[in-house]
Automatic annotation (TrEMBL):
This protein's record includes keyword Cell inner membrane: no
Quaternary structure note: UreD, UreF and UreG form a complex that acts as a GTP-hydrolysis-dependent molecular chaperone, activating the urease apoprotein by helping to assemble the nickel containing metallocenter of UreC. The UreE protein probably delivers the nickel.
Family: Belongs to the UreD family.
PANTHER family given in the database record: UREASE ACCESSORY PROTEIN D
Top-level taxon of origin: Bacteria
Name the UniProt record assigns to this protein: Urease accessory protein UreD
Major location category of this protein: cytoplasm
Annotated compartments: Cytoplasm
Xref: InterPro entries: UreD
Record function comment: Required for maturation of urease via the functional incorporation of the urease nickel metallocenter.
Matches recorded under Pfam families: UreD
Length: 319
């Protein structure tokens, strides 16, 4: 079984087009660091992952799958006893991490009625870069009645690294998307606390007609403005954001619910706010340790799940 090629994916030749895996509209500050694409010049690699998921026989299955290393995917598994129909996908990356010139693109499409959870096997390391940048673009599409969760492990930028990420989410009014991202300070044991050159992460959410619902940007340049300033991370080292994009509950109710769930979180500073256009709620978490922030992210995920799909967050046994 296969789905027709969606409108956002050209039918042929797209994977060899540099604008497919590197946005042509990079911010000027990022574009100034990126070396021009030329034949024969690539220290890094192009990693591609495309997967379409749809209900088949009462469970969600991958009905279309393409991958190009260094990105690859295990076969979807069904591990949530409360939602046995939900497909869990573990994203893997060959090698030890991202290097200069790496260009990654990930596309996940949840068809109407699909239930999908996407995570990663381990944190994404971004190594020191003598030139160029590393980029990752993610496109998530949730059709009517779909539930799509994208909760990868944290990003760890090493000293001297440069990373640009953009996640674009297309959400049907009848769908629910839970999206999280976590930034660690680097190799703290080696004295590298926010010693990277650039970390730029964007999230854009749109409706099926392409109208922007909201945009969120985390832009840190430690050599220019240290993240420890009061207007940025302050005394905290770890940053996480969780976006719950849905119209299955009033935005104000969802915001209050998440704030109440986080009231008992330990060793973090956390807050919840309504997203524009009544499309959900967003949570920001700051903490000194990855464990404390990860616990707060899980609390948020669990509370949102219980309210929106009526089941708790499962134990993924990832350590």
């Amino acid at each position: 079984m296969s789905l027709p090629a969606p409108a956002w994916r050209p039918r042929t030749g797209h994977r060899d087009d540099v604008t497919w895996y590197t946005p042509p509209d990079l911010p000027a500050e990022v574009a100034a660091l990126a070396l021009p694409e030329r034949a024969g010049r690539r220290a890094g690699k192009v990693g591609l992952l495309e997967v379409d998921l749809s209900p088949v026989g009462g469970v969600t299955r991958a009905v279309r799958h393409y991958q190009r290393t260094p990105l690859f995917l295990f076969r979807p598994i069904h591990v949530d006893p409360a939602r046995p129909d939900m497909a869990f996908l573990y994203l893997l990356q060959s090698g030890e991490g991202m290097v200069h010139g790496d260009r990654y693109r990930i596309d996940v499409r949840a068809a109407p009625g699909a239930a999908v959870h996407v995570t990663s096997q381990s944190a994404t390391k971004v190594f020191r870069m003598p030139q160029d940048i590393a980029t990752q673009v993610v496109h998530l599409h949730a059709g009517p009645g779909a539930v799509l969760e994208y909760l990868p492990d944290p990003v760890i930028p090493f000293a001297g690294s440069r990373f640009y990420g953009r996640t674009t989410v297309t959400v049907d009014p009848g769908a629910t998307v839970i999206l999280a991202e976590t930034l660690l300070p680097g190799r703290v044991a080696s004295g590298e606390a926010h010693a990277y050159d650039l970390y730029w992460s964007e999230v854009h959410a749109r409706d099926p007609d392409g109208r922007l619902l909201f945009a969120d940007t985390l832009h840190l340049t430690p050599p220019i403005a240290h993240p420890g300033s009061p207007a940025r991370l302050g005394p905290y080292q770890v940053h996480a954001t969780v976006h719950v994009i849905t119209q299955q509950a009033p935005a104000d109710e969802l915001c209050n619910l998440l704030a109440a769930a986080l009231a008992g979180a330990h060793d973090v500073l956390a807050g919840a706010s309504e997203l524009p256009a009544g499309c959900g709620a967003s949570v920001r978490v700051l903490g000194m340790t990855s464990a404390a922030v990860a616990a707060a992210v899980r609390t948020t995920w669990d509370a949102a799940r219980r309210r929106l799909i009526g089941v708790p967050a499962p134990d993924l046994r990832k350590g």
